[in-house]
């Protein structure tokens, strides 16, 4: 082989999704020899974060057919890995005209310091606006390409959630920075409201009467008092969370706050599940302002890149832009490793994205998790009355015609976009729509306006796509030493299921070892003068 | 506690495998040298205080962790770095010609447009030089970078390289003063013990 890679490994990981990257980090961390490859030239697959040009390439990428299968050699059969790009469908993009507020040139540092008064004057000036046609928008976005970090799978972390615990314990957190989600919003009947989440929010909110405030306080405290696996909670498995809330003497508005925003539930969610989801939310409140959520600066893909770095620090070898096919024993024995770049790489264990698993092992008929996504680039915040920063909005359909849509708005502080722009992500379950994105159209008509009437934001760019994630439960009959990793479950806002999956795979391979232990007191401390 | 420290600067070391990136890092931060240093394992980043021209800064110097071998450094490696050291081996022409690729990678991923770059020709203690000092200087001039030759083994030029880089960063307006202006949150060990401020729900249950 042209590259001098070692020829055998404890673990070969194919695909750089989040689950794969966590497993790679955990294995390398306990001293296992790890090779991590991805056929794309970027990290993350369906979890990737792209600049604007990368998005254009990704949209245009039709994916390649799996490489032809080789004839068996010495009892070894070659099975081509699949093309994960095929799981994305109904892609379209559009550009629109609109008015953007031009960012003012920041005064040169030295000048600003010298003339503090002059600075105050300049902020009084009317903001400079620029009117763009659809063609202008297209050119503008291309010219600002690198200022965009657009997530295929945007996700948030609960401040007191299991992902944050693992990041801290493994010290992967030192590669990352976060921003709090400033506004938790709910849009019902076209009206956007700020959801009171913390005690102080409940005290100060104007959308709830005083009597109701006491009831809401009591209810939120009660929700937290349910113990895991308690009889009380078990009894609630047969009713819906919606019905549970209806019995609580609270107005419809407040029911909606809890159902859609705090529990992020749907009309079908069971009461027991709804309570657990509400608890996850409420337990994380109050540590970084009145928000339970934090967002990784520069996007979701940073998290998996941070795990890849940990893996590399502990000796994991990284190769992007490189394909790998399976090597299986003809007599249904264990997987021998992978065939890559003309060479055989032996492996005790192979970890692979479900999307890449050779098709003979995948049952596409069984139920899968399919979601719709939109990425919008807009010119204004959806909720001008909120704090400047990240907003998370839930858009339920009260008549149950569709599942709720989750909207995440990122401003320039997150490094997702340049000043003057916003990146808005939409996610919804695919299922009830008769035509693709029918539900998104309703949300867009409510919240955005092409002409900017009523101070509503205008959509300048719209990317739509649908992702059909193959979950590891759809994969069967793999050799025992091959472990498949699901793609991003975008319908849940946090990383919990991915983290659990990674830990399960790790434990299956190395039952006696600790999952991502804290590194020993690190050398860098000692190196200070 | 650290009133004397002006700021923390993130410095990257990049370049082909085997040019001595980790050795430079270890020589500078720990004043150690291991001639058998093979492919980098276990070096993440190291911090060191440096005082130059009366300014004390803390340097966080990031190693590639071997991810440069197949050109798979993550974009996140480059984020927010104020300085980059591009290393080649003076006894290997090929490592010198590859600097072009490293510069363009740096331009693609660095988030600060005015990041200060320094080209370092390492291993000047070794025989069989393939890149003359003059060629190095010309390359650095063409790309408007700082330049120095060094030997991690004999310590020649190492301290000097870091000092010069830091001076240039401090002199570059807007490169380092505006750090942390966005109120970003780091999650770390303290997170575990932190009590919710008023407004949290947990405290109501105690």
Give an overview in words.
The complex is a heterodimer of chains A (529) and B (206). In chain A, helix 1 runs parallel beside helix 13 (301-313) and helix 1 crosses helix 15. Among the domains of chain A are: 8-87 and 299-367 and 470-526, FAD/NAD(P)-binding domain; 199-284, Guanine Nucleotide Dissociation Inhibitor, domain 1 (Orthogonal Bundle), CATH 1.10.405. Residues 108-122 and 523-529 of chain A have low confidence and may be disordered. Chain A is α+β, with helices and mostly antiparallel strands and 529 residues long. Chain A has helices at residues 18-29, 52-60, 109-114, 116-124, 134-143, 162-170, 199-204, 210-225, 231-235, 241-246, 252-262, 271-283, 301-313, 438-447, 496-509, 523-526, and strands at 8-14, 34-37, 49-50, 76-79, 88-95, 98-101, 129-132, 150-151, 157-158, 178-188, 191-194, 293-296, 317-319, 325-329, 335-340, 343-353, 369-378, 390-395, 405-410, 422-429, 459-469, 482-485. In chain A, strands 5, 9, 10, 11, 12, 17, 18, 19, 20 and 21 form a ten-stranded mixed beta sheet that branches. In chain A, strands 1, 2, 4, 13, 14, 15, 16 and 22 form an eight-stranded mixed beta sheet that branches. In chain A, strands 3-8 form a two-stranded antiparallel sheet. Chain A is globular. The longest helix of chain A is centred in the middle third of the chain and has 16 residues, at 210-225. Chain B is of the alpha/beta class and 206 residues long. Chain B has a single domain, classed as Rossmann fold (3-Layer(aba) Sandwich). Helix content of chain B is 28%, strand content 21%. Chain B is built from seven helices and six strands. In chain B, a hairpin with a 2-residue loop joins strand 2 and strand 3 (55-62). The two termini of chain B are 34 Å apart. Residues 202-206 of chain B have low confidence and may be disordered. At the A-B interface, helix 6, strand 10, helix 7, helix 8 and helix 13 of A face strand 2 and helix 2 of B.
């Amino acid at each position: 082989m042209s590259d001098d890679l070692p020829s055998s490994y404890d673990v070969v990981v194919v695909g750089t999704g989040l689950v794969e990257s966590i497993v790679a980090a955990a294995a390398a961390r306990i001293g296992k020899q790890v090779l991590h490859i991805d056929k794309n030239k970027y990290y993350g697959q369906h979890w990737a974060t792209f600049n604007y040009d990368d998005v254009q390439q990704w949209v245009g990428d039709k994916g390649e057919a799996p490489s032809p299968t080789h004839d068996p050699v010495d009892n070894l059969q070659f099975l081509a890995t699949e093309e994960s790009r095929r799981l994305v469908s109904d892609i379209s993009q559009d550009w629109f005209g609109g008015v953007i507020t031009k960012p003012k040139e920041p005064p040169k540092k030295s000048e600003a310091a010298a003339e503090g008064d002059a600075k105050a004057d300049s902020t009084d000036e009317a903001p400079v606006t620029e009117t763009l046609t659809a063609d202008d928008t297209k050119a503008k976005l291309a010219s600002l390409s690198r200022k965009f970090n657009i997530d295929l799978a945007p996700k948030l972390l609960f401040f007191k959630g299991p992902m944050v615990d693992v990041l801290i314990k493994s010290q992967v957190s030192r590669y990352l920075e976060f921003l709090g989600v400033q506004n938790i919003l709910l849009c019902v009947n076209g009206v956007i409201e700020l959801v009171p989440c913390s005690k102080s929010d409940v005290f100060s909110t104007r959308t709830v009467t005083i009597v109701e405030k006491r009831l809401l306080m009591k209810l939120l405290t009660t929700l937290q008092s349910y113990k895991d696996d308690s009889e009380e909670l078990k009894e609630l498995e047969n009713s819906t969370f919606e019905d549970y809330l209806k019995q609580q003497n609270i107005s419809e508005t407040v029911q909606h706050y809890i159902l859609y925003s705090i529990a992020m539930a749907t009309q079908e969610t069971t009461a027991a599940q709804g309570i657990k989801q509400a608890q996850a939310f409420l337990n994380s409140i109050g540590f970084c302002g009145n928000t339970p959520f934090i967002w990784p600066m520069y996007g979701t893909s940073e998290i998996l890149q941070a795990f890849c770095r940990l893996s590399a620090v502990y000796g994991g070898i990284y190769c992007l832009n490189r394909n790998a096919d399976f090597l299986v024993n003809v007599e249904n024995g264990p997987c021998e490793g992978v065939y890559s770049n003309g060479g055989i790489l032996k492996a005790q264990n192979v970890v692979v994205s479900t999307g890449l698993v050779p098709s003979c092992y995948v049952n596409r008929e069984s139920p899968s998790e399919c979601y719709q996504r939109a990425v919008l680039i807009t010119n204004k915040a959806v909720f001008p009355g909120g704090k400047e920063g990240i907003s998370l909005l839930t858009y339920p359909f009260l008549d149950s015609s569709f599942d709720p849509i989750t909207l995440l708005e990122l401003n320039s502080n997150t490094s997702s976009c340049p000043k003057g722009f916003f990146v808005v992500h939409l996610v919804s379950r695919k299922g009830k729509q008769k035509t693709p994105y029918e539900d998104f159209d309703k949300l867009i008509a409510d919240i955005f306006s092409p002409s900017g009437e009523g101070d509503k934001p205008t959509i300048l760019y719209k990317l739509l796509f649908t992702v059909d994630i193959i979950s590891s439960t759809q994969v069967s009959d793999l050799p025992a030493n091959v472990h498949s990793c699901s793609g991003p479950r975008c319908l849940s806002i946090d990383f919990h299921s991915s983290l659990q999956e990674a830990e399960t795979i790790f434990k299956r391979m190395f039952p006696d070892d600790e999952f991502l232990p804290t590194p020993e007191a690190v050398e860098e401390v000692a190196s200070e003068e | 506690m650290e009133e004397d420290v002006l700021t923390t600067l993130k410095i990257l070391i990049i370049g082909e495998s085997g040019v001595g990136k980790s050795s430079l890092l270890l020589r500078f931060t720990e004043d150690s040298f291991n001639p058998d240093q093979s492919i980098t394992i276990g070096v993440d980043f190291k911090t060191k205080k440096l005082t130059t021209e009366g300014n004390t800064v803390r340097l966080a110097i990031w190693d590639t962790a071997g991810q440069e071998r197949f050109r798979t450094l993550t974009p996140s490696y480059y984020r927010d770095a104020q300085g980059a050291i591009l290393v080649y081996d003076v006894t290997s022409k090929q490592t010198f010609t590859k600097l072009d690729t490293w510069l363009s990678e740096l331009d693609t991923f660095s988030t600060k447009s005015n990041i200060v770059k320094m080209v370092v020709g390492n291993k000047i203690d070794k025989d069989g030089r393939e890149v003359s000092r003059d060629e190095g200087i010309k390359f650095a001039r063409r790309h408007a970078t700082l330049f120095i030759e060094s030997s991690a083994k004999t310590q020649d030029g190492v301290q000097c390289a870091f000092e010069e880089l830091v001076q240039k960063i401090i002199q570059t307006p807007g490169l380092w003063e505006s750090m942390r202006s966005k109120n970003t949150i780091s999650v770390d060990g303290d997170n575990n013990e932190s009590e919710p401020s008023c407004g949290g729900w947990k405290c109501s249950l105690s």
